[in-house]
Amino acid sequence: xHQARYLTSFTLLATLIGAALAQPAMxxxxxxxxxxxxxxxxxxxxxxxNEDEASIAALNAYLRATRLAGHQPAEYASFSELRKAxxxxxxxMGKTIARLFPAAxxxxxxxxxxxxxxxxxxxxxxxxxKTTGAEPVKEEGGMQTSAxxxxxQLVKAPLSWAQxxxxxxKSGCKAEQCEAGLKKIxxxxxxxxxxxxxxxxxxxxxxxxxxxxxxxxRETFNDIWEYL
Length: 228
Hints:
By secondary structure, the chain is of the alpha+beta class.
């Protein structure tokens, strides 16, 4: 269980470091259009879950004036930084997975372990999500809030990748068997059946003239890794 939690935590750390909040400040500008909470939630989902370039650009543009007014970096997320993290993740996580196995096997198992990590990340990024409803806007103390329900279709592997890798490492398999086992786990993330993950994404704003936002958006999506 400790190793499973460690691997999951490492996954979250490695995939979320791409959130770029240190972009140069830009001149304040108004959001080009007023968006309803459900539309804003869609942009956050496509940004954090799917790392979709167009949605990242649209969300950055929508939030920019509000972020600058709050003395935050202009850009909420950077597509280039997310792509950099996505490229680094399989390399580093593959090494972590390989270290679960005897030292003599680790070098030969690393490519298969890296492919497994790449398939897990691709399964997350390829999730098909949709909003399913939104609570009426509530106002209290000048703060408006709304909660948007959504669901994502995710790959359902027989066993989570972290647990499956640990079980394989403890099985006493020989190098060839371990490699085949890692490839089998990786394949389950490339072609497995689908499952539904449901959650609620809250957004808020201090005034009706400001953008709907969630400064802790990634916390909503952390649980997605428990379903992979």
